[in-house]
Amino acid sequence: MLLVFFHTNTFSEDSKGVQIASNAGVLEEAPDNTLLALELALKQGARVLKVDVRGTKDGELVLMREETIDLITNGKGEVGKLLSDELMLYDAGSWLHDSFEGEPIPFLREVLRFAKINGVKVILDVKEQGLESQIISLLEEMGMVKEVYLWGTLGNLREKEPSYLGPSLHFLSPEELSPANIKQAHFQHKEVITTLLGCDDREEIRKVAAKGPDILLVDFPAVAADVLNSEGMKEPKGRTKRRALIVKSHGDPEASYEIEKEEPPEGGGRIDLLDPIGTLYNLLVGAYEKKEKEEQEETGLVPTSKEVRSLSRALKEPNIKEKGLIGRGVRKVSKGLTEEEAEKSRMAALKMTTLYSETVIPPLLKALSYKRPATRANAAWALGLLGDVRALPALLKHLWDEDIEVRREVALALGRLKDPRAGEALQELLLKGTPVSESHGATPAARYGTTLGYQDAPSVRYDAARALGYIRYAPALGDLLRIMVQDPDWRVKGACAWALGRIGDGSAAPALGKFLTANAADPFASWARTQAAWALSKLGEDSSAALLDALKDNEEVTRRRASWALVRIGSPALPALYRALRDPKPQTRQRAALALGWIGDSKAVSSLLRSLYDEEPGVRQAVIWALGRIGDPRAKGLLDDLMKEDEDGKIKELAGEAILKISKK
Fold first, then answer.
1. Is the predicted pLDDT of residue 239 greater than 90, yes or no?
2. What ranges in 245-354 are assigned the alpha helix state H?
């Protein structure tokens, strides 16, 4: 049961030295493993930052927990198979909420610099092997060897590398924390760490902290800081202001590009019919042919058509390693193919996105029709990054490409264009592979539902749902709701829930509420239900009734998600929380009181005062804590009576602390 009892005098001396460590940021409030989340953790009271580390294909170290970026960015692919230049384009924030749009994937170097400037320590949870020398070199370069703990696959690095002199951690579960075990670890010059992940139970945090670990790793640093009476940083310094690429669609939506039949000759003059403005610019500044490359590097001049053709040829370079094909497009990967050549194709596409769109889009459109799937996929990817809606007709033609990776890239590109004209086609792509029922015989599902069956590319359906969310395509509302319930793949379910939140129609709230309470052993179920909770908070007051039902659920994780969603909604959620204060279940009343405290609206004081004499001690303690946090002086009189008259010593202590907080405000 979640209790709120706390008073500084009840802690043992051992708890005073406990450092709060945040687990990749702040659960329920910010996207994991972003600098924004780490900054928020410091503001809430963390003094140690635990982050997850992986390596990119070109040897850069970045923050990422999952093996792929699909679930937590607007891109796709395995971290270890992506180049850092590409990885930095993707948005690692809007998967959680559109208010975080543009938050980039951080380099480990950026995080270490941020920690160094703010004087905090870092725990590196390294998710893969083979990064030892790379990490040590970076720590030495930045002077952070003594400020960084290694965990995960590098947890035993000291034994492998005797020269490594960084601090050493010793993990003990909360049950293993004892004076003898802690003393033994300290004798070995190790700091004791324990974890309370997924836990915002104030009483549990208090009990574990009182056992005296050196570091307490939590998902809710604000709750732990409140329990331990720790203050956060007012304004952490040094967060890099770099932002991921946010595609802003441009171009005349009624126009489209004509694809050139013949390429102009390699030789010839400097007149570029595709780029008259660039041609005039070059003539005016007197750029000579022999100095053209140097001048472009130094001044950023518009590229010539010759250079664009060169990039276009690189995009379709021979012997590019093809990605796996499914269905009729399956082909064997040619022998002797190298990753280096595949990188050239991808990097050529990336470079083309930095050039003048009027010049590079025609060859990219032509590349959509090349035989190699990798070429088509890279062309679609580049067109999406360019964000020119005049590429829409050509992209729509390739939405049904025989290759899965091409279909995925086209779907994501259409999502980046954010043009509602792509909505119907994406909706049909989403429906491909879903079951056909009698009640849906006239829908697009009737045309596509039986084509390939449920097992047809859940990744394609996932990307189609994401794209519909980015477009905010309201006509897909009904199908998104149905597929969220019926699809067997929890990634697809979660993407549908996220898209429903982006669309913002309150009529989706009841179904999202039921989905929030669904449970499954699938490894992606937790992520999907998180999407539902955030979608409900996005819907605001319309979702209050659904979240109130979830707050009554028998599962603690569901009640936790619902309560923090109500906190995110804020004051519009007050009426639902008032009703929850009168619920027969004490855990529901308790959660409601805590949520009202975190919202901090003084309008809740009257309802909280009526619950001050609840028959359940845990509820009463939650109410007293909430009144103290809100800080309204109207509560002082009744709290003072509790201190004088109540027989429960804990209630008296907590009431005294609440009065002190109110007085300070």
1. no
2. 276-285, 292-299, 305-315, 339-352
Report pLDDT digits (tens) over 2-43. 333 333 344 444 556 899 999 999 999 999 999 999 999 999
171: Cα within 13 Å, side-chain hemisphere: 11
User: CB atoms < 10 A from the CB of 439, how many?
Assistant: 8
Question: CB-based contacts of 532: which residues, under 8 Å, 6+ apart?
Answer: 494, 497, 512, 513, 515, 516
316 DSSP assignment: T
> Which DSSP symbol is given to 322?
P
Helices (H) and strands (E) in the chain — how many of each? 31, 8
pTM: predicted TM-score of the whole model, two decimal places: 0.84
| Residue 602, both tokens | 């003084």
The DSSP annotation for 216-265 comes to EEES-HHHHHHHTTPPPPSS--------------BS-TT--PPPPSSPPP
Phi, psi angles (nearest 5°) of residue 92:
-100, 15
Which residues fall within 8 angstroms of residue 311, CB to CB, at 6 or more apart? 348, 351, 352, 355, 360, 363
Asked if 480 contacts 427 with a C-beta cutoff of 8 angstroms, the reply is: no
Sign of CA dihedral 601, 604, 606, 611: negative
Q: Give the three-state DSSP class for 118.
A: helix
Give residue 304's identity as a one-letter amino acid code: T
Pairing state of beta strands 48-55 and 61-63?
antiparallel
Separation between Cα atoms, residue 377 and residue 323, nearest integer Å: 10
Greatest CA separation for the chain:
97
pLDDT digit string (tens) for 437-492? 433 344 433 333 333 344 458 999 999 999 999 999 999 999 999 999 999 999 99
Pull the structure tokens for residue 518: 């669904």
Can you tell me which residue has the tokens 């669609």? 249
Copy the structure tokens of residue 127.
């998710």
Q: Please, which residues bridge with residue 20 across strands?
A: 216
CB 79 within 8 A of CB 87: yes
